[in-house]
Amino acid sequence: MPAASPTLVVASNRLPVVLSPDGKGDWSLERGSGGLVTALEPVLRDRGGTWVGWPGIETGRIKDMDRVLESAMEGVGYRVRGVGLTAHEQDDFYLGFANQVIWPLFHDFQAQCNFDPRFWKTYVRVNQKFARAILGETSDNDFVWVHDYHLMRVATALAARGAACRAAFFLHIPFPPLDVFVNLPWRFHVLDALLSYDLVGFQTARDRRNFLHCVRVLVPGVEMEGEGRVERLRRGDRVVRVGVFPVSIDFQEFAGMAATDPVSERVAGLRSEFPGQTIILGVDRLDYSKGIPHKLQGFKLALERYPDLLSRVVLVQLVVPSREDIPEYYQMRAEIERLVGHIQGEFTRAGWVPIHYQYGRWDRVELAAHYRAAGIALVTPLKDGMNLVAKEFCASSLEARGVLILSEYAGATAQLQKDALLVNPYDVEGVAYAIHRAFTMPRDEQRRRMQSLRETIRRTDIKWWVDTFLKAAFDEDLGESAGVEIYRPPPPEHLEFN
Ligand code: ADP
Ligand code: F6P
After folding, report:
1. Is 172 a catalytic residue?
2. Which one of 385, 475, 482, 496 has the minimum C-beta count within 10 Å?
């Protein structure tokens, strides 16, 4: 940012806290889950500014929302401004357009889309509502940074109200290829909305390439200049910059947390709970994009194929509740629990239960202790914008002994491909093979890979991410790109060709 820094006004659908009635006439606060909150919270804490977003409750249920939020967030180092959503808006904007249109389509699950025409109208109105809230917090010199697929139309709404502030957008989820994107009835509207920002950022080079391809084919009159990290698109008298900025975590915070006494004690507790067993860890929000059933099938096949794993590994799988009002989500929970029961029934023996499954939330100590105690992290989304769990596991792996098994389809793969064991999550044989390979990997190789993973994540941490994005937003030179190559899968080791 330039010398006299403008105030940062961040907008996202979610705030870092979710309010809910505590049953005694007051409000209880829970931390919002998801990668966006993990990434943005340290940015706001570090730089200050204002965060505009929805605190997870219905308009009208709380009269003095901003006062409740302010007192709850006192001392965090930034301001919070709540945007309430009516029940209808929650249905048609959040559960509807955001999570039954854009979420499935952008994660390549076209069959799960519900293109109900009502959803788009409400999406436009809610984006206008966010724009009004942003304008209430912003002067012309400020910098508005809008996050994620819920708020793609905010710049359009700001411009319609004559706002002169600079506005940038970052997409935390993937951007789909043309053949998938083109199914969206509002395909032109969405591209036009994104082209109304001054800067649009994506997680990977693949996402940016997909976006540019869609613009080239679907939007007339756009000229493209430049190559490398940031591309300039000229449309009439406007220039839009389009760049790649892989989101990250506060590495030092995760590493520091893992080293605290409460975490060390809990790590010792976990080791004695699972004596002589390697913990294989899965931490996923309940979501079809996370590929949890495929992962369970891969684990089951590993137990069938590699008897040396029996009694020697335990899969600790946390599933964090999410979007439970959407049928695909609660159906998926039932499917996961059926599969877990099936595997337990088949493999449990005296003194050994192969899966330790939890549906719920862990606090920070519990999460850090599991990351540090795990010997293997099994991160196998079918598609994921980045996947911060993968980075958190590495940052917390203080003894540099864990092995990261990572899906080829996570955004994190572009940066971590050299040192993780990569799998195609649809290939359950490949997942089983990788589990066995991780389990039998010599200590030296584990250490070498994990040290290198940690170094990459430390170097390109959340401070690097925000600095790089803001430099691009203010047209500064970005220097060299850091590990954002498109991943090209090699021929598989575990499959024969004849
Ligand atoms: P997504 O954004 O799709 O959920 P990510 O892997 O990028 O996927 O991010 C998940 C985030 O949620 C991680 O930062 C993780 O630490 C966080 N998380 C996991 N479990 C909890 C929990 N119980 N409470 C709050 N946050 C959690
Ligand atoms: O990282 C993707 C993301 O959609 C975030 O935008 C969001 O915070 C998270 O997943 C959790 O989803 P939700 O906000 O719907 O609970």
Report:
1. yes
2. 496
Secondary structure of 173-186 in HEC code, one letter for each residue: CCCCCHHHHCCCCC
Mind giving me the DSSP string for 44-92?
HHHH--EEEEE-SSBTTS-SSHHHHHHHHTTTSSSEEEE--B-HHHIII
Kindly list the distances between the CA atom of residue 40 and the CA atoms of 45, 205, 391, 455, in Å, as whole numbers in the listed order. 9, 21, 15, 21
The one-character DSSP state at 380 is -
Q: Which two tokens stand for residue 427?
A: 């290939």
pLDDT along the chain (498 residues), means of 10: 73 92 81 87 92 89 83 88 95 97 98 96 98 94 96 97 94 98 97 97 96 96 78 91 95 98 98 97 98 98 98 98 90 97 98 97 96 98 98 96 97 96 97 98 97 97 94 70 63 74
Q: How many CB atoms lie within 10 A of CB 318?
A: 20
Per-residue b or e along 282-297, where b marks 16 or more CB atoms closer than 10 Å to that residue's CB: bbbbbbbbbbbbbbbb
Contact 237, 193 (CB under 8 A): no
Checking DSSP bridges between strand 27-31 and strand 17-21, what pairing results, if any? antiparallel
Distance CA 198, CA 35 (A): 24
75 CA to centre of ligand 2 in angstroms? 25
Which pair of structure tokens corresponds to residue 103?
């979420």
Residue 134 corresponds to which tokens in the numbers above? 């942003």
Set 198, 207, 284, 384: catalytic member: 384
Examine the residue annotation and report whether 370 is marked as an active-site residue of this protein. Answer: no
Type of residue numbered 286? L
**411 Cβ closer than 6 Å to some ligand 2 atom:** no
Cα of 237 vs centre of ligand 1, distance in Å, is 41
In the numeric block, the tokens 């520091």 are attached to: 256
Ligand 2 pocket, mutate which of 31, 36, 204, 288 (most atoms under 8 A from CB): 36
* Angle, CA of 322, 323 and 324, to the nearest 5°: 90
Length of the chain: 498
pTM equals 0.94
